[in-house]
Amino acid sequence: MAKKAINPIKSLKIPQIIILSAKVCAFVSKNLATKFAAKIFTTPIKHKVPKREFEMDSKSLQQVLQVPAINKKITVYHYGQSERKILLVHGWSGRGTQLFKIADELLKQRYSTISFDAPAHGKSEGSTTIMSEFIASILEIDKQFGPFEIAIGHSLGGMSVLNAIKDGLKINKAIIIGSGDIVQDILDEFISKLMLNKEFSERLRIFFEDKYKLKMDDFSAYRAAEKVKIPVLVIHDNDDPEVLVKAGIHIHQNLENGSLFLTDGLGHRKILGNQNVIKKILEFIKN
Predict the structure, then answer these.
(1) Looking at domain 50-181+220-286, what is its CATH homologous superfamily?
(2) Of 15, 166, 230, 246, whose Cβ has the fewest other Cβ atoms within 10 Å?
(3) Which chain positions lie within coiled-coil regions (predicted)?
(4) pLDDT tens-digit readout, 112-130
(5) Is 214 buried (19+), middle (13-18) or exposed (0-12) by CB count in 10 A?
């Protein structure tokens, strides 16, 4: 059974009704507020597939895969026919088709891609998930459909790729885009977004560590990076409002064989479709 880890939710704007509910819970009971925060923290938003992703969605061979380590089913997307395969991993509240522009360019370079809707995301079952379920999904996909030459992960997907490599994923290179880094920093920001007292960040950490019997920092990206020996390209935007650029810089500093590519003005999601970013990815893969 795979170790469980809390899921670093990205700093999307939290609806006022949730902020108000958190404050009411905190007024009634600190324990109640902690449990409420934990529920929100592990519940992604399921978005409809946008029109820009329709082509990849319609042209992919899709199948449901059982992941025994977590006893959950996920939807897997096979895009292209080449035996040279690249794994794509979306971020929190994302989808298996979210990296479609990157996937389209990889097909032109005679690669195929395999991606998936993580548990509680897209077409996959469930309403809550945690980072270790992303990692377990990656390792099961590798077992069933690998080997992969390269893995590309965005945001939480970047953290998950690094952790999967640490846990045994065998690939030649990895690319992480807008990846989160230190789990405690992500918790601190989440509690701030909920407009709760900072003490709830510590309470939330203790709650997860007690529940899952783990140390949260063990899943921080920089920790995994310390054990990754293959070449890794770290891409991050200087103006990313959701995951500050210091995360990418810190991850890069802890890689043995890392490259850092910083952009400007692309934020957290536009970076996935930028032609200069895609060009850099292709150069890294070819070299």
Answers:
(1) Alpha/Beta hydrolase fold, catalytic domain (3.40.50.1820)
(2) 15
(3) none
(4) 999 999 999 999 999 999 9
(5) middle
